[in-house]
Amino acid sequence: GALAFAAVALGGWFAIAQPAQVGVRNHASLQQLVRDEDFEAAVAFASRHSPEDFSAIHYLPPDPWNDRAGVPLVKLLLATDDDTPEWLVRTWADQFGLHLSSIDVDRPWRVALVDREDMPEGWRDELARRPLVARVLEQHAETLEGIDEALRRLEESAAARAAAREQAAQEDQESESELELELELEAEPEPEIER
Asked: SS3 for 147?
């Protein structure tokens, strides 16, 4: 009796745990592809599965609450095409919306982590042509404008700091040249006056 119960319990545990392990393994595989920035392979991998094939307790990679998730989410969405399952495009579009909602545009140093120059050129125009993603861009238009403004301010302040450093370096060089000239003049022997 006890041996039969143990066998049934073990079989029941295996029936429950095995699908969960597959979901965790698929999640880890997708996460590694995203981490390696192999976005086409990540889309292909996820497209071969259904939502149930991934861990139910985690976001599909990348985690939208991560400060640096914006670029990978955009690149994943750009790697999708008409053959990509709708659930996948919708999931990543919704996660991009969550990511955008987490951005505080009044903290430009955090915005700089999100929307760097490694964003693909023309990404907004390209994503705006995709209905499932366009709605997310429309919902977060104010945030996207705030990001643009914050980045512009960061660029302006960086340019101003660079100009100030250049001016200070130039003034230091001029001061150094004047000092060298003074030292040269002091080092020259004074002409002797004959009497």
From this structure: helix
CA pair distance 152, 145, nearest whole angstrom: 11
Distance (Å, whole) CA 169 – CA 162? 10
pLDDT tens profile 18-57: 555 888 899 999 999 999 999 999 999 999 999 999 988 8
Burial of 167 (0-12, 13-18, 19+ CB in 10 A): exposed
Say how many CA atoms lie within 13 Å of 105 toward its Cβ. Answer: 17
Please report how the helices 39-47 and 70-79 are oriented relative to each other, as an axis angle in degrees rounded to 10: 60
| E-assigned strand segments in the chain | none
Given a cut of 50, the residues of the chain with pLDDT beneath it are 13-15, 17, 113
- Type of residue found at 11: G
Half-sphere exposure at residue 55, Cβ-oriented, CA atoms within 13 angstroms: 16
Torsion of CA 35, 47, 59, 14, to 10 degrees: -100
Place of tokens 């008409």: 82
Length of the chain counted residue by residue: 195
Q: Strand, coil or helix: what is 54?
A: coil
Q: What is the DSSP letter of 115?
A: S
pTM beyond 0.70: no
